[in-house]
Amino acid sequence: MTNHWIDLRNSDCILVMGSNAAANHPISMKWVQKAKDNGGKLISVDPRFTQTSAKADLYAPLRSGTDIAFLGGMIKYILDNNKIFKDYVVDYTNASFILGDKFDFGDGLFAGYDKEKRSYDKSAWAYKKDDKGAIEKDPTLENPKCVFQQLKKHYSRYTPEKVSEITGTPVPDLLKVYEMYSATGAKDKAGTIMYAMGWTQHTVGVQNIRTMAIIQLLLGNIGIPGGGVNALRGESNVQGSTDQALLFHLLPGYLRAPVAGQKSLKEYNDLAPKTTDPRSVNWWSNYPKYSTSLMKSFWGDAATPENDFGFHWLPKLDAGQNCSWLNLFDAMYDGKIKGFFAWGQNPACSGANSNKTRQALAKLNWLVNVNIFDNETGSFWKGPGMDPKKIKTEVFMLPCAASVEKEGSITNSGRWGQWRFKAANAPGDARPDGDIVVELMDKIRGLYKKDGKFPEPILKLKWDYTDQKGHFDPHKVAKEINGYFLKEVKIGDKQFKKGDLVPAFPMLQADGSTSCGNWIYSGSYTNDGNMMARRVKEDATGLGLYPKWAWAWPVNRRVLYNRASVDKNGQPLNSKRALLTWKDGKWVGDVPDGPAPPFGDEKGKNPFIMTAEGFGRIFGPGLNDGPFPEHYEPLECPLPNNLMSAQYNNPTIKIFKGEMDKHLTCDPRFPFVGTTYRVTEHWQTGCMTRWQPWLVEAEPQMFVEMSEELAELRGIKNGEKVKVSSSRGEVECVAMVTTRFRPFKIGNTTVHQVGMPWCFGWVAPKNGGESANLLTPTVGDPNTMIPESKAFMVNVVKA
Amino acid sequence: MADGYSIIMDTSKCTACRGCQVACKQWNQLPGTETKNTGSHENPPELSFDTYKVVRFSEGKNGDGKPYWYFFSEQCRHCLSPGCMAAVEKEEIVQDEKTGAVLFTPKTKNLNFKETLEGCPYNIPRQNPKTKEMAKCTMCFDRITNGKQPSCVTTCPTGALAFGERDKILAAAKARVEELKKSYPKAEALNADDVRVIYIVTDDPKKYFKYATPK
């Protein structure tokens, strides 16, 4: 989230799209309701009329996988009807930037496409620069090669009629949504988006979100209370684990994983973005401070300037290597991965194309399943269709403590690190994850001591995170993440001694005098104490920032890009919701995005400090699949062609070609669109909740929701057992025939869609059914590789 | 306090998260019953000796063809003149003077179940088939007499459920209905003068649940 949960209440218009917040983030509706109580509007756009739709002022259906068409139409509407917030667009975004001569777009492809490699040469999307290296701009926005005019041109094709033909949304419904939402382009109005996996799990997942980000920039909705682009994270601490580099291409704090061939720390650091604009803060220019401090945290005294602070001990990716989920399980299926820790997860139900995942597990030599309950992953070898005698995988089940049985922090969607205390001891032999990691690492270090190859990274590791009894100490780790001064340092007029905790990341150094396990968390645990454990209910702005309740990264800023919430003189765009005000030479309110004076001041800085240019990116030249979002059909779809261009699917997706990676499009055997979702009662794959009698009582069995029209077509009655199948698998479940799914009129054809949850699995409860992920395809977004679980093709018949 | 307590169940704010249904079971330590999916999210299908609260789901199409989906968290209304007490002789059912809660005691096993059920306009009382004892919502009597709100109210994320002194709840219900009427002319508080659990609806109450209004 750029903003945070409570901030939803400050919105004048909340669009929920790619999410069913009422079911999956029930508490969010507390703040949505408060916004409604204040006169705010709620819009729900979803293939199915959901619990969220039931509360909405306006509902519009759309076919799964057509969000860019829907939102592209909104961009056109905003531009055609001059709903933009002009000052914001001119001053705070890259709308005025002139594009280079190479940039072009035609029939679904941007300039620079290489058909063989299925990738773009992004240099074709560069801005035009003058001879001093400065980006050329036209603040009148009239130059035909400026971003604004190119945007207009790009989305001129997204007429309501064309959009409706693709999405199946009736034109009047489209226009009502466009009109209601684009009203937030007014200076004193705020609109926000709540999205979740309904946007990310597509082959155009990142671009779905980019389309909305463009809308938010055009309407001046980024950086303001009640605005922003808000991802509703699917687990209480998934934000925290992402921050801590759960993903293969990152080191903690969104530093890049190094790549083989980078010869020195300098070469690695030099990849950080650069700018020639003195008014751009370009925060990433601090990269060397964060990378060096991270390695000092890893290796302590052993990290020295002479050995590049241990840079050569960091694991390196091969050039172009992608180790994301689908690729990992593909490699496992091919027998290239011998051992696997399934830690607090259940891939046998959660991963797309779970039949392949389950077969992949059978190729392992060993599997360690760390969980609070048995699950389909740990017990895969005795699951449906498996012959235990033929499976050589040795499985270790390690029971671990549940979240309430250990102390530590979680970071919520709003980036608030919140400390939690232990409520009870874990039962039996179950242990906190930290204790398991400590013991595991001690064993590994022992083995490396004996005869380890390349032992330095392991044996020189600073590894002192236990208490006097040898248990994992979460406070020691939290302090390490915050960072220490490693020697006496004077910064300005402040003197810090060795062993002091770093007060905030601006104090981090690139010379090895500081350590920091994750720069964005620097300030979370200081000499003043554990900031994440704070519980002070003060709210000076009245906007729900509660700056002394827990701690938000970065530097306790509650709303990101908040320098865009003020005009050029630093006065709030909306005086009734003053997030930040420039008063008597300083900022009052939220923690500003840097202390510099407002944009209009001669010493002022550009507002978007995390981009090299300092401006919000309407034109986004960094993604793998294009600088403007473009509609492509899902890999499996019901239409024989893309009505928007000759380019059928996203041209940059990786096509898996293994024996279990089947996909079929427009095949009469699988004529219906399928999608997956969660239910309130079950958490993710249901690993925790399927053992809970009150929850199983409320949502006991796998189901498929379908329209009355489809049920009639297939002769299915409500409550009957049916079989849903895709080219990859089949699931038996109960038919839920409902008025909440309606057939889509797509051009001259009728397209039916069905939806299923993925929270069930064969282990428990008995007769509960199986996960919808047995049906979902092995294909991912070209930027993130998140699987396309939200749009694929299925058949439904009576069981 | 003059007139006991009351609860608002504002269906316009209910998202059917079913936190109330589960919180009720948790506080009252009631077992989960074995259920099947019968083509609806609504489960368990009925109130029972082990289930005091069920969120009802009701869907359909409006005149304009647009779908609706209404949620109705069903429970005992704690009537001011409880019909279930018609045949009571020896405190089998009591109406607590201070709170207004209508409470089934273990002595309900001596009552005629059919009569008790028929006496209730809302089809609430349920019987243990073995012990013949009857049970239903207690308004969390053990909580509200110890300074706490009923468990369902504490759990509700959106404020669809609210608990308080009856005069304040009546005033809040009235104000809410007036507010809702601006957008939903059919908005009303159901039988507010007769019951302590007051349901606010925005449409024909029969579209929500068979027993939204007295049978």
Salient structural properties:
heterodimer, A: 799 residues, alpha/beta, six-stranded mixed sheet, five-stranded parallel sheet, 33 strands, 22% helix, 16% strand, B: 215 residues, alpha+beta, four-stranded mixed sheet, two-stranded antiparallel sheet, 5 helices, globular
Short description:
Chain A has 799 residues and is of the alpha/beta class. Helix content of chain A is 22%, strand content 16%. Chain A is globular.
Description:
The complex is a heterodimer of chains A (799) and B (215). Chain A is α/β, with parallel strands linked by helices and 799 residues long. Chain A is built from 21 helices and 33 strands. In chain A, the strands form twelve sheets. Chain A has a six-stranded mixed β-sheet. In chain A, strands 3-2-1-8-9 form a five-stranded parallel β-sheet, sandwiched between helices. A three-stranded parallel β-sheet of chain A has the order 12-13-14, with no helix packed on it. Chain B has 215 residues and is of the alpha+beta class. Classes of the chains: A alpha/beta (799), B alpha+beta (215). Chains A and B meet through helix 2, helix 3, helix 20 and strand 29 of A and helix 1, strand 2 and strand 3 of B.
Intertermini distance of chain A: 43 Å
Largest sheet of chain A: 6 strands, mixed
**How many distinct helices of chain B?**
5
Average pLDDT reading of chain B: 97
* Sheet with most strands: strand arrangement of chain B: 8-1-10-9
Shape of chain A: globular
What structural class do the secondary elements of chain B suggest?
A: alpha+beta
What's the order of the H and E elements of chain B?
A: EHEEEEHEEHHEHEE
Low-pLDDT parts of chain A are none
Largest sheet report of chain B: 4 strands, mixed
Round the mean pLDDT of chain A to the nearest integer and report it: 97
